[in-house]
Amino acid sequence: MNTPKIVIVGGVAGGASCAARSRRLSEEAEIIMIERGPFVSFANCGLPYHVGEVIKEEEDLLVASPEIFRDRFAIDVRIQCEVTKIDRENKTVTIRKMTTGETYDETYDYLVLSPGAAPLRPPLPGIDHPAVFTVRNIPDIRAIKEMTGNGEAKSAVVVGGGFIGLEMAENLHHIGMQVSVIEMAEHVMPVLDKEMATMVNEHLDSMRVDLYLGSAVQSFENGPDGKPLVNLASGEQIAADIVIMAIGVRPETGLAKAAGLDLGPRGGIAVDGFMHTNDPNIFAVGDAVEVEGYVMGGKRLIPLAGPANRQGRLVADVILNPDRPKPFRGVQGTAVCGVLGMTVACTGETEKSLGLMAKDGKVIEYEKVYSHPFSNATYYPGAQQISFKLIFAKEDGRVLGAQAVGLAGVEKRIDVVAMAIQMGATVYDLEEAELCYAPQYGSAKDPVNMAGMIAANVLKGVSKIVHWPDLENFDGILIDVRDPEEYATGFAEGAINMPLDSLRKNLDSLPKDKEIWAYCYVSQRAYFAERILTQHGYNAKTVSGGILSYWAADADA
């Protein structure tokens, strides 16, 4: 088909990407983009930062206007129009003009669905209070700024401690509001493993953000001053000037389901590797679709802008260059979040996700290592510590996932691991990775190298590691090889202080018929101690992550 008519439902991320790519591939194609809201191609990931006045002007959020799509790309953009029905047999969609209520039918050769995902707004008593908001689009942010912009609102409750919730918490804090975060899980950032997220909990606490963890909202009510009161299942009540609901999103699948398109096991629109639905003339992209997990397979719903844009681009290629495209390679959940000066990032699988897969019968034997390197050379000003967790397959060292938190240098290390995962790399590849180095940017042994080296040592048998939760059933000897003044600041229960520098002189005081576990601040000196002990005939192991990970695990317990 030389001049296909492509109708795209949804003008943000995946839809806009598909429209622009389609025009670049074909001057002849007729392209219509239909958007329910008043804006297309806006930076929804930037919405919280407009609330926080980091992004000053609303127009800065507009990546491309309807006029740009019309004038530059010759795309017919129809805003404030909603597709209410798909007639697959006749290849038409019914469109309702939201400003007038008028309806009409539009034909298509190919239909691309990019409806996105809607914020969850459960039917809790009082949730319709005018000061309870969700965050999805520019009108939502306008309404929030009407309440926060004049400085009269002094306190905010954010319900949900995930990406959007913490970004909103950060930005409300940035404009001087007292912020409380309510999260049903035992820690914020539920996508992380608990011991990593605990560090984020502690950081928020240090920034005087009130945390209500393991707490569920039961209802809202109108306070005496007309402001919302948030009632928790625990019986606690929190007063606030404004409430932000950020408990997650649900894929917008109503239109697809009504048209008889298949949904996947997780409730998203089912697609193949080329984003086809079960109708060969209908594609779906973005937050509403289920796609294959890249690392371990299995259907995933991961609402991220990067995959949505790549999927939209792929669909344009499938329609207009059908002999060239490669299938969508899947998602691995690479994500980053700023939290009041701290950066939180992750890619690939977590222990939590691997555990859920194991329950479904998909088991892989894995190991993990912790490290706490610095963002750059410590002799150069500004170096900040990064807490890093690497998960890898025991069988071959294939990298399965990574998580990191810290004040600097976090996201670029996770980006390196993300690409390594896409290339099927192992910990040995991380060990050998050649990365940029100058003292203000990194170290000669980059944090990624260090994680790879530690993991490679484990797989090669050079080092034997254990983890703090293993201590519960340990009946050997636990030694703290830090200096006495460090030991005095806090130590693991039952640990004996045997400083590394005097360890060789005190070997005779240790029995050879018991396991000896060594730890230090971050594990480096413990590894040195393990090597000394092992080569003198002791059964020694290193506790991965050192006392830093112990404190995180202890806070998490």
Short description:
With 557 residues, this protein is of the alpha/beta class. Helices cover 27% and strands 25% of the residues. Strands 3-2-1-7-19 form a 5-stranded parallel β-sheet, covered by helices on one side.
Describe this structure in words.
- The structure is a single chain.
- α1 (14-25) links the parallel β1 (5-9) and β2 (30-35).
- This protein has 557 residues and is α/β, with parallel strands linked by helices.
- The longest helix has 16 residues, at 305-320.
- The strands form 8 sheets. The protein has a 5-stranded parallel β-sheet, with helices on one face.
- The protein contains 15 helices and 31 strands.
- It is globular and about 90 Å long.
- The mean pLDDT is 95.
* Shape label: globular
| Span of the ends, CA to CA | 62 Å
- Rg from Cα: 27 Å
Percentage of residues assigned to helices: 25-40%
Order of neighbouring strands in the sheet with most strands: 3-2-1-7-19
State mean pLDDT (0 to 100 scale): 95
Q: What structural class results from the helix and strand content?
A: alpha/beta
Biggest sheet statistics = 5 strands, parallel
Poorly predicted sequence stretches spanning 5 or more consecutive residues: none
- Number of distinct helices: 15
Strand content: 25-35%
Oligomeric state as shown: single chain
Number of strands: 31
Name the features.
five-stranded parallel β-sheet, 27% helix, 15 helices, alpha/beta, globular, 557 residues
Write the layout of secondary structure elements.
Blueprint lengths: L4 E5 L4 H12 L4 E6 L11 H5 L14 H8 L2 E4 L1 E7 L4 E6 L5 E5 L2 E4 L3 E3 L12 E3 L3 H11 L6 E5 L3 H12 L3 E6 L10 H13 L3 E4 L3 E6 L5 E5 L4 E3 L2 E4 L3 E3 L2 H5 L10 E2 L11 E3 L4 E4 L6 E2 L4 H16 L14 E5 L2 E7 L2 H9 L6 E6 L14 E8 L5 E8 L3 H13 L4 H6 L14 H14 L4 E2 L10 E4 L3 H4 L8 E2 L18 E4 L4 H12 L4 E4 L2 H11 L1
Parallel strand pairs: 1-2, 1-7, 2-3, 7-19, 9-16, 10-11, 10-16, 11-12, 18-20, 27-31, 28-29, 28-30, 30-31
Antiparallel strand pairs: 4-5, 5-6, 8-17, 13-14, 14-15, 20-21, 22-23, 23-26, 24-25, 25-26
Helix pairs in contact: 1-8, 6-15
